[in-house]
Design goal:
Blueprint lengths: L14 E7 L46 E5 L2 E10 L2 E10 L9 E6 L7 E4 H4 L11 E4 L10 E4 L3 E3 L2 E7 L1 H4 L8 E10 L12 H4 L1 H12 L9 E3 L2 E3 L4 E7 L2 E11 L3 H7 E7 L2 E7 H4 L9 E2 L3 E3 L5 E3 L3 E3 L2 E8 L5 E12 L8 E6 L2 E4 L5 E9 L2 E12 L15 E5 L7 E2 L3 H4 L10 E2 L3 E6 L6 E8 L5 E3 L2 E8 L7 E11 L4 E2 L5 H5 L8
Antiparallel strand pairs: 1-11, 2-3, 3-10, 4-8, 4-9, 4-11, 5-6, 5-10, 7-8, 12-23, 13-23, 14-22, 15-20, 15-21, 15-23, 16-17, 16-22, 18-19, 19-20, 24-35, 25-35, 26-34, 26-36, 27-32, 27-33, 27-35, 28-29, 28-34, 30-31, 31-32
Length: about 525
Amino acid sequence: MTDRKTLSLWPEPFYQTSQASSYSRKSVNKDNMEADANYFTGNYGDKDTPRDWGQGWFENHDFSQYIRTELNQGRKEDVMFEDFGPGAIVRFWAVYGGIPDEYGGIYRLYIDGNPIPVIEMYHKNMVGGAGLVGKPFSFFAPEKAENDTWRGRNLILPIPYAKSCKITYDGEHKYSHIEGWKGHYYQINYRSYAQGTEVESFNTNTLKTYNRELKEAAKILTHSPERLNVKIQESGIRVKPGKSFKKKIMGSAMIDFFQTRIKAHNMEQALRSTVVSITFDGEETVWCPLGQFFGIGYVSRPHQTYYTKVDASGLMSSYWAMPFEKEAEVKLINYGDQEIILEELALDHRPNEWTDLSMYFHATWNETRSLDTKLRSDYNYVSIVGKGIYVGDNLTLYNSFPDTTGINWWGEGDEKIYVDFEAFPSHFGTGTEDYYCYAYCRPQPFSSPIASQPIGEGNKTPGVTSNNRQRILDGIPFSKGFSFDMEIWHPHRAPMDFSPATFYYAFRGSQDNIEKDISGVSHKVRLHLE
């Protein structure tokens, strides 16, 4: 969980990563792309106005959906998740839409066929709360909001099992009659290992047994490593329009620290028009705007995840492990029309043995400007042919809708992730903000090891939003191919600038469908309504 190099190696023993969620069970056929009706037939928030959940592939009734209901000791339990064989729960996200605090549903985790749950706990204590484990393994996103229920609840404590795991929820049948009940949204990411893989199952003593390791992991996940005697350091470098600054590293090594701070007259434009390009062993695999590479889009705001950090001074740091066999070249290219100054630049690397399991780091970027959000669609973040592991993304957008009715939210759409050309996505989500670990379009900034929102102005008003999701234990291996789609789902026609950056590791020869967009990074960024 705390060794950044691990993601750069093909996993042994191999595991598959999947997701169980409350996605709409009416979304069964991606060929059914019939146009949806308006999301709402009247004013949002008016309890007397009927709600239209959409149709076909974009149906949005994505809460309180379960595998089945079981009767256990006289109580009804809804089965949220079930897996047979060795595996591990690696991420648990949930929201309880509008449930008053006095009403508490109960999660029960049954492991290896034992009819006695190894965990039996109120939802608000287990996921997000400190009933099972504290921060940073259990956290809210954002930490504070206008209403306690309007926060994503997250648990990233690994819960392994040797033979099977079942998770149930006891609450829907108790409280469905209560006025204001809006249901239960959830996502559970999990690994499945091959039969015969040895896994130590989670039990009632696990947290006590591994208490020291948990404390050490918590420190590593939340504190950036101190860097002494960095091998490459530069300052005060001027890069004129159309020019670049580059550094080459020879030998079998791994870049594990990349830090810079820039200065320009128009900083927002510089963060978009300055591109990070990295070539490993003669193949350029990274081409991404500077700001999105470091997780802030084009508006500098402080945030910190396990792999990226930006402080209040604008100093940007990356801790992605980037191995190579013979040589690497890191370039910062100025595609803008203004000079930029690299006030600070640091690159650190260490010797690294290149093996048959080693993979190259990739970063892609694309943008669609004035995207029509009224027409439901699936926006492709990236599609890859080859073998590798998907490890995260940044979504930066500009929402232009001048809302006066409370329907400004842009991110209702679900992620749909296809692994190895599967017909139906093994990851089908419940909303864009849910994928990024928060909830209910909250504009407040937040940071955590696996997700952050440095800026969320565009969630509730016209403006910019930047969201990050990084996969520490829930990286998605693929042997043949990978495709990531995100639904575009807005109740109104709100022309939006939509730009995802994606991050993955892959073996040589793997290819994706994203091409360099020099005119795109050069285009004037938007901050406010004009």
